[in-house]
UniProtKB/TrEMBL annotation:
CDD domains: GST_C_Tau, GST_N_Tau. PROSITE patterns: GST_CTER (PS50405), GST_NTER (PS50404). The keyword Transferase applies. One of its GO terms (molecular function) is glutathione transferase activity. This is Probable glutathione S-transferase. It catalyses: RX + glutathione = an S-substituted glutathione + a halide anion + H(+). It holds the Pfam family GST_C. The keyword ATP-binding does not apply. It comes from the Eukaryota. Belongs to the GST superfamily. HSP26 family.
Length: 219
């Protein structure tokens, strides 16, 4: 039997998406909660390069970066697919996953944590990307169609974490009025029975983000 370990932090959307993928495939694994302020020697031994979670260790071999880990999980274990089987659809899923991560999630996160000109710049970037995403998700339940796929996994930041963060900092870009299709998709995703089981408690995340916002330190 293969040995699987996952180093993570409970509040991280990147870790949670990997957990969802492992649970979807029915993979048995050991979860190791990492103190990001005081990283363990074992964690640093496995990931001396980025020193970030998540890190998946399979039979002693570490894999970094959540998007890379998702693809590894999909290719290594049988079970429901995370990526489409069709080569074109698979390529487009990679594109949209990267678009969501780089063009939507990152500027949204940055806008909430910054101020002044930096905030306005990030807000503009986020709004332009969200308009494109709003058109892409129109008429669909999930980005993967009727079932959750890789773009939905990567979009967990937008669906769950960003609305909480916006409320904490009192600055809202992604709203139901401006982006109804994205909002509807996020609601569908977070209320899916499988996804719901793999999300942290909203109140707990809100408290952690509020404390981080007040101290000026995410961790």
């Amino acid at each position: 039997m293969s040995e699987v370990k996952l180093f993570g932090a409970w509040f991280s959307p990147y870790v949670r998406r990997v957990e969802m993928a492992l649970n979807l495939k029915g993979v048995e694994y050991e979860y190791i909660e990492e103190d990001l302020k005081n990283k363990s020697p074992l964690f640093l031994e496995f990931n001396p390069i980025t020193k970030l979670v998540p890190v998946l260790v399979h039979n002693g071999k570490p894999i970094f970066e959540s998007s890379v880990i998702l693809e590894y999980i999909d290719e290594t274990w049988e079970g429901p697919s995370i990526f489409p089987k069709d080569p074109y659809e698979r390529a487009m899923s990679r594109f949209w996953a990267k678009f969501v991560e780089d063009k939507c999630s990152e500027p949204l996160w940055k806008a909430c944590w910054s101020a002044g000109e930096e905030r306005e710049k990030a807000k503009k970037e986020a709004e332009e990307a969200l308009k494109i995403l709003e058109n892409e998700i129109e008429g669909k339940k999930f980005f993967g169609g009727d079932k959750i796929g890789v773009v939905d996994y990567v979009g967990n930041v937008i669906a769950f974490w960003i609305p909480i963060l916006q409320d904490v900092v009192g600055f809202h870009i992604l709203t139901k009025d401006k982006f109804p299709n994205i909002w509807k998709w996020g609601d569908e995703l977070c209320n899916d029975s499988f996804v719901k089981k793999n999300l942290p408690e909203k109140e707990k995340v809100s408290f952690a983000l509020k404390r981080s916002f007040e101290t000026g330190s995410l961790y």
